[in-house]
Amino acid sequence: MAALIPALRNLMSPLRPRDPEEHHRAATPLELLFDLVSVIAIASAAVGLHHGLSEGHALEATITFGMAFFAVWWAWMNFTWFASAYDNDDTTYRLLTMVIMAGSLVMAAGLPSLFSATPDFTTVIIGYVVMRIAMVVLWLRAGCADTAHRKSAVAYAIGIAVVQIYWLAFMLVQPLSSASSYGLWAVGVMLEISVPAIAESLTSTTPWHRHHIMERYGLLNIIVLGETLLAGTLALRQTVEHFDIMLIHTALSALVIVFALWWVYFLPEEHLPTRSLRRALVWGYGHFFIFASGAAVGAGFAALVDIITDHSKVSLIAGDNGVAIPVAAYFLSLWAVRDRYTCKGACVAVLPAFALLVLVAPAIGLGLEGVAGAAALCAVVRSRLAQPAPLGHESAAVDVVRTKKPSKVKVRGTAKRR
Predict the structure, then answer these.
(1) Closest CA to 44 of 136, 126, 114, 117
(2) Which of the four, 32, 131, 192, 297, has the lowest number of CB atoms within 10 Å?
């Protein structure tokens, strides 16, 4: 009997809060596997946008892409912040995380049906609800072990569960007109994003780890930018069948742009220097636009390849705009979540100014090369004006936490690893 106790403890141990000041906190192999599964869904959404742009349905495809990408990103984001605060790597935690991954794969399988003439949300909603119900169980487990944040954990669990009832009701009232579907989806999104804002305000902020969260977001950004590299590879592959100098230009532009987008994101400034709830919400939610625009750049390049190879009747300037608009959106989104807080002087205006230049480039005849050149110049200028955090910043920027009432929180140092 005594031998069973360690085995049972490994099967399900309490989800106690992690130490938000833990040193050397890094992404776990399970989190990296979770990212790998998420990229499948992201790629599926990007393919839908690619085909919509190639067929000349840019507005409808962009709206649908936004809806699809939100589902993928929101499930990823919720799990990421939870894992930062409570990951204990026991068997039950691993299995519930794998259930979330399975739901993501189901959702990815259903994303193409959203881009059809008569969108069908059934498979996407089923996969999404599976993911979110697993999160309800995780939050209930956290609430049992973390008495200091129990109100927040229970609020998360109840809020997520209630919103899933809404999504199931939405699924059952199909088919709907496009306008009705967009409206009901928007209501569901508002309900989803309100849950963390409400739950986190009920107690002191859950003990997520700043550097761990910044690393997790950075890793997903790299994955998203990979969509553009894939499109560049597609352009090069087409040259094997029939050489076209425009395809070479497209591939080189894709490389320059993805390197520039990576460069301006990974600058010395810390993205999230404090743990204040308001700043965390702006930063965490605002990344939706960074990630979505990064994936859309790859879809734009894929559409350009279709145009150049005569697989699409869309004009070349429309294809150039299909790249320029998401690049500009990426710069503006990054300014909104980071630069307007961390920059001083001329640095504040760099990303908005180059976003405007990127948008103008196709209109004044500079084409895709002009977009790539502006993006590269933006990376050069912005890096020259970078303002690294001073030494000792991590301890100096003591976490500003919204607290209703002080409480003693028992935290773990390093999670047990199998």
Answers:
(1) 114
(2) 32
Using one digit for the tens of pLDDT, what is the confidence trace for 337-367? 999 998 888 889 999 999 999 999 998 888 8
Instruction: Give one word for 314, left, alpha or beta, with left for phi > 0 and alpha for psi -120 to 50.
Output: beta
Is the Cβ–Cβ distance between 267 and 383 less than 8 Å?
A: yes
289: pLDDT strictly greater than 60: yes
pLDDT at 153 over 90: yes
Q: Is the pTM of this model over 0.90?
A: no
Rounded to whole angstroms, the maximal C-alpha distance in the chain is 78
In SS3 terms, 226-272 reads as HHHHHHHHHHHHHHHHCCCHHHHHHHHHHHHHHHHHHHHHCCCCCCC
CA distance 277 to 274: 9
Which whole-number Å values give the CA distances from 275 to 49, 197, 224, in the listed order?
35, 14, 25
For tokens 């909104």, name the residue. 336
Neighbours of 99 (CB within 10 A): 17
DSSP state of 298: H
- The angle at the Cα of 252, spanning 247 to 253, to the nearest 5 degrees, equals 95
- Lowest-confidence region among 11-20, 270-279, 323-332: 11-20
3-state DSSP assignment of residue 61: helix
Instruction: Please count the CA atoms within 13 angstroms of the CA of 389 that sit on its side-chain side.
Output: 18
Confidence of residue 416 (pLDDT cuts 50, 70, 90): very low
Q: What is the pLDDT of residues 183-239, one digit of tens each?
A: 899 999 999 999 999 999 888 889 999 999 999 999 999 989 987 777 667 666 766
Contacts of 208 (CB under 8 A, 6+ apart): 20, 81, 84, 85, 275, 280
The single-letter DSSP state of residue 12 is S
Distance of CA 145 to the CA centre of its chain: 29
Count of CB atoms situated within 10 Å of the CB of 203:
23
- Report the alpha-carbon distance of residue 167 to residue 128 in Å, rounded: 9
